[in-house]
Specification:
Elements: E1 4-5, E2 11-15, E3 18-21, E4 24-26, E5 30-33, E6 36-38, E7 48-49, H1 55-59, E8 64-69, E9 76-77, H2 79-87, E10 91-95, H3 97-109, E11 114-119
């Protein structure tokens, strides 16, 4: 299994079933909201992300929401979530988790107001 490592980033490592944020290892899906990690991110409908799954993120009013869709990219946002984000001028970036982690770290380095949800397995 390939492991991706970044130095001097909020997320320093990601591999299937494991993500390391600020030196702490998580083995469940996570959200990052206002610089804090919300562990054990469970969604109402498994591999679908709905508005209700992101209330804490939406209350933080990020400019950008990054969704890590898992290694093969099975996690999907619903059309109602995409419509809500568009109506509230929140940019949505959905990528396989390895790409999403890179994008998230890059946006943080640019001092962007970004939040994220990461599915770390399928």
């Amino acid at each position: 299994m390939n492991s991706i490592t970044w130095l001097d980033e909020m997320i320093t490592e990601f591999s299937f079933g494991k993500i390391v944020v600020k030196g702490k290892t998580y083995s469940d899906d996570i959200k990052i909201v206002s610089g804090r990690v919300v562990s054990e991110w469970w969604r109402k409908s498994g591999h679908r992300v709905e508005i209700e799954d992101l209330t804490d993120i939406l209350e933080a009013e990020p400019d950008i929401l990054v969704i890590g869709k898992g290694s093969p990219g099975l996690l999907k946002s619903t059309s109602s979530l995409r419509d809500y984000l568009a109506a509230n001028h929140i940019e949505l970036i959905e990528k396989k988790t390895s790409e999403a982690v890179e994008i998230f770290n890059g946006l943080l380095q640019q001092d962007r107001k970004v939040a994220a949800g990461f599915h770390i397995s399928c």
